[in-house]
Each structure stands twice: as C-alpha cells, then as structure tokens.
Amino acid sequence: MPTIIPRQSFAAARPGPLPSRTERSTPAVREISIVPINAIDGELLTRLALCLEERFLATAVVRAALAVPKSALNSMRGQLFFSSLASRLTSAYEPRGDLVLGITEYDLYKTSHQFVFGSSSEAQRCAVVSLHRLRSEYYGDAPDENALFQRLLKESVHEIGHALGLRHCYNARCAMYYSNSVFDTDNKYSHFCEACERRSRANKSA
Questions:
Q1: Which of 36, 48, 71, 119 has CA 20 to 30 A from 175's CA?
Q2: pLDDT the model gives residue 94
Q3: In angstroms, rounded to a whole number, what is the distance separating the alpha carbons of residues 203 and 61?
Q4: What is the pLDDT of residues 186-198, one digit of tens each?
Q5: What global pTM score does this model have?
Q6: Residues 31, 54, 159, 197: which is the catalytic one?
Q7: How many C-beta neighbours within 10 Å does residue 43 have?
C-alpha cells in the first residue's frame, strides 16, 4: 500500500530565503507521487517527500516501486532513455491532474544530450531524477549522504518546475537554473527565485 507522508516542514534543507507564505498561498500541484524505480533508500525518499511538501504546499505520496529491468537500458550506452521511462511511469501511475516524480539509480539520457541529471514532461505531468551522477562516488570522492540528498532535492524541484510549465532561469542561485555539472547543482538553492515563483503562480491561475 502507498505510504502518505504527513505535511511537515524541513527547515534544515532550506539554504536561503524563500518567498513568503502569502506569496506561495496558491499551490501549483495538489499531490506529488514519488515513485522509486526499483530499490531506492526509503529514508531518502521520506526526507525528500517532507521537503517537497514544504516547497510546493502539496501532499507527497511515496508509491510502490516500479520495476524496470536492466534490459531496458540502451545496450550501447548503458543508459536509460528518459522518454521510455516516462512512458512506463505514466502508464503505471496516471497523474490525474497531479504529478508523478520518478527516482532512479539508472543513468539517464535524452536525444541530443549525453546525459541528464533529470528530465520532465509538462504534457505527461511527469518528472524523473537520476541519482547516478548526483553521488559523490561518481566523481571519485567519498560517499556523502547529505550532499546526495541536497542534490536530489534541488534537481527534483527543478524538474517539477518544468513539469509545471517553468523554463530555465538565468539566476544561478535559482532551482530553475540549468545545471551543466554537479557543481552548478551544488551552487544553487532548492527553491525558486521570486521571478520563477511568480511565473509558477501565473501558470497555476492561467
């Protein structure tokens, strides 16, 4: 059975000032279904759910895992094509006006991209984030669970923003800034800048 995460704040993961509660009074999404692809650490997903609830003022639900075998990977690249995974996700977990967020250990790629930290589809109300290149071990460093979580949160907020209709932002501290590398992800906040927050509210009311 899916586990519904209670609405809570997670102040420790907020590294900078957020728009006021009044400014964020209109939620852009009612429910975010977090779907682990195969086995993903449950504590990591629970912590993510708590933070996403605070960011988007929405209910976050950790769903049952979606099994995706290694045979689904591109055999030449050893990566999973985003569109293929998005189709699997939306077939298994219909958004019904809300949003589905998949979390995977598989390395992702898209057409014209050698890799992506994550991607999304506004039409499908679906987003996916890969842990593969967010792990410190990928860069030859010691495991760092806090760094992994912060990167996962930032990329999740970024991809949910795209799924809600936001585009990339030129503010390097905004969650909607495009990360060319994990260093860009480390440098930005896990929330929208004021301009992107206003666009998010405008998209909701449109």
A1: 36
A2: 74
A3: 23
A4: 999 999 999 999 9
A5: 0.85
A6: 159
A7: 9
Percentage of the chain exceeding pLDDT 70: 83
**Single-letter residue type at 175:** A
pLDDT digits (tens, 9 = 90+) for 57-87: 999 999 999 999 999 999 999 999 999 999 9
CA 16 vs CA 74, 94, 116, 189, 191: distances in Å: 39, 34, 26, 7, 8
Q: Which two tokens stand for residue 175?
A: 């969650």
Contacts of 203 (CB under 8 A, 6+ apart): 28, 164, 165, 166
159 is catalytic: yes
